[in-house]
Every structure is written in C-alpha cells, then in structure tokens.
Amino acid sequence: MTYDLAIGDRAYSSWSLRGWLLLDAFGLAVRTHSARLYSDDLANVLRDFAPARTVPALRLPDGTVVMESLAIAEELASRHPEAGLWPQDPRARAVARSLAAEMHAGFLQLRGQCPMNLRAAYRDWPLTSGLRADLDRLEEIWSWARATLGGEGPWLCGSYSAADAFFAPVASRIATYDLPVSDTARAYVAAHLAHPSFRRWRAMALVDGPDQPVYAREQPRRPWPGPEPLPARAIHEGTPENAACLYSGRPVTHLLEAGGRIFGFCNAFCRDKTVADPLAWGSFVSAWGVR
C-alpha cells in the first residue's frame, strides 16, 4: 500500500517534513507530489488533493484526502497499529498526543522568528523575550515527558513516535539558528539530526530546487551541526560499479564519485541527493560496503 503526499519545498516547509516523517520514519510507503511554495505550482498540485488548501495533504489509496498533520498521524496510526506511530502504553500515548497537539497549535514566536531553513546554519541569532519563552516552554514539556514516563534513550516517550516527528522541525530550527537550550535538549536535537529519515529529507532538501530568497537571513553562518556527510561529488565520465540505479533499478545515466569509487543513478535528483549525504541512503550504504 502506497500513500500519496503533497508537500512543499523540502528545505523550508516544516509541515511537509512532519507529514513525510509520519510515513517514512514508520516504514509506510509514500509517493510525494511536490511544488514550490508561494507559486502557482502548489495550487496545481493541491487540485489533486481537494479540498486541501495547504501541505501536507495525504491521499489514501481509495482516494480519500486527509488534511492536517494531526489528522494524518491519527489516520495512519489507526490503519497501521503495528507501525508504532503512537506508543502502545496508554500513559505514554497520552503524553505523546499532548505533546503533538501543543506543537501543532503553539510556539508562534519560534515559528515566526526562526522559519525552517535546512540549507543554512547561523550564529549570533538575536534572542527576543518571545523566542526565549517558547524555548523555555519546549524545555518544560520535554522534561515533563521524560519525568512522567521515566524513559531512557533519546526520544520523548520511549521509542520514536509521532510526537518526535512533530518536533523534528523544531529541532532543525534550534540547529539552524544555534538557539540556546540545555544540554539535554541539545542531545534531543542531535538525535533528530542523526535520524535516518531526517537525514534523507535534508539531503533531498539541499538539492530540491533553487533557494527561496524570502528565507535568507543576513547573519554570520556556521557549519551544519548534524552528522558530517561522506565526501562525494557529481562527475560526468567513468565506469560505475553498479549497472542499474541503486534506487530504481533503471539504467544508469548520472554518476557520482566517493572515495575513488564511482556509482551510477537513473537521474540527476537520485545522484544529487546521494552526493548531499551518501550514508543517509540504505541502498548506497549496502553498495558502499561491497568491494
């Protein structure tokens, strides 16, 4: 069963990231339909997801459209209880749902002052009282979840859940703007940046169309604080180790080089998303391990 998901620019659309994580991070097959934010293309894509007016929008195999990320989370959880979108333990599930609901409706200062931008990492970001209040509230509810459930590991309610998917764009904002949070909160951010699904999304975000100027900020930059990618580059000539694209199985037309080895892909996007972060992709990792 494959779901259809309408999304905006991967680098900037925080709600699209949430919607996609609710599928990819839980092993549910998804086919994306993307369009550039603030363009006619977005309206054109959403025509096939009526009556949705915003992204993400999910179309079920029977054609029914589910709007809004909370509704998407609940619908997928009801259809795939084995996937673990919500914790099985009733108490943990209640906490996770509370966290997701507050994220869905709140933190307006953080959203407004620090829009998601996965293509940048700044330093010396100004800290207003409103932004400080939102960060304090994040610390409070993240600590409350851990204290209430007594769980170990990096996630808020035991295993990775829909609540964590909802906070992934928050983690990216803390990383992008180097916002001041506790060591515990920073470790939670680091867990998000290293999560395989998040890494794949960001790798695609880095090559998913041109920059959106509206998101540019005149602040000093610093390196992205997530896992350092394996160095790779696009090349135009060479003999790849694989005869078919690592992802689609189609004939190879585009090449990359990493560590003196050459791999082939069926199109520029397949290649470029791999160049951005080769070890985010399981098929590349499997091929990389073969010598």
Spatial strand sequence of the major β-sheet: 2-1-3-4
Cα Rg: 19 Å
Summed over residues and divided by their number, the pLDDT gives a mean of 96
CA-based shape? globular
Q: What is the CATH class name of the largest domain?
A: Mainly Alpha
Helix content: 40-55%
Helix/strand/pairing class, anyone? alpha+beta
Catalogue the unreliable spans.
none
Bin the strand percentage: 5-15%
Largest sheet: number of strands, sense, barrel closure = 4 strands, mixed
Total strands: 7
Distance between the termini: 35 Å
Per the CATH scheme, the topology name of the largest domain is: Glutathione S-transferase Yfyf (Class Pi), Chain A, domain 2
Question: What is the succession of H and E elements?
Answer: EHEHEEHHHHHHHEEEHH
Please count the helical segments: 11
Supply the CATH architecture of the largest domain. Answer: Up-down Bundle
Protein name: Glutathione S-transferase
Organism: Rubellimicrobium roseum
Pfam family, one: GST_N_2
GO molecular function: glutathione transferase activity; maleylacetoacetate isomerase activity
Would you give an account of this structure?
Helix content is 44%, strand content 11%. With 291 residues, the protein is α+β, with helices and mostly antiparallel strands. The chain has 3 domains: 2-81, Glutaredoxin (3-Layer(aba) Sandwich), CATH 3.40.30.10; 90-200, Glutathione S-transferase Yfyf (Class Pi), Chain A, domain 2; 233-288, no CATH class. It has a 4-stranded mixed sheet, sandwiched between helices. A 3-stranded antiparallel sheet has the order 5-6-7. The protein is globular, with a radius of gyration of 19 Å. The two termini are 35 Å apart. This is Glutathione S-transferase. Residues 1-84 form the GST N-terminal domain. Keywords: Transferase.
